[in-house]
Amino acid sequence: MIHDLFERLADNDVPPVPVDFDQHVHDRVNHSLLGVHMMEFVFQVVPYAFLHLLGGLIGLVGVTLSGEFPNDRGDRQEAPP
Fold it and tell me: Residue 72, Cα to own-chain centre: how many angstroms?
């Protein structure tokens, strides 16, 4: 039964692919990829970069107001007087 189906399908002619088929597929994929990339940029990259910049700016304000750079590392020794 399956062999008969395959033989019948082998006798059918397949229409040619449209000329602009690939271009239409590329356009749809490119538009969807652009949308996904823009959403990732706006909702992931920009907030991540903003938080890192904010940490640096808070540190800059802290150093400016106190006049001292904080030593958070335990392996550093203070300079001798």
Answer: 33
Torsion angle (degrees, nearest 10) of CA 29, 33, 36, 39:
-130
Instruction: Judge contact between 26 and 33, C-beta under 8 A.
Output: no
Cβ-proximal residues to 37 (8 Å cutoff; 6+ apart), any chain: none
Sequence-distant (6+) residues with CB within 8 A of 71 are 78
pLDDT tens per residue, the chain (81 residues)?
Answer: 667 888 888 888 888 877 777 888 888 999 999 999 999 999 999 999 999 999 999 989 998 998 887 767 666 666 655
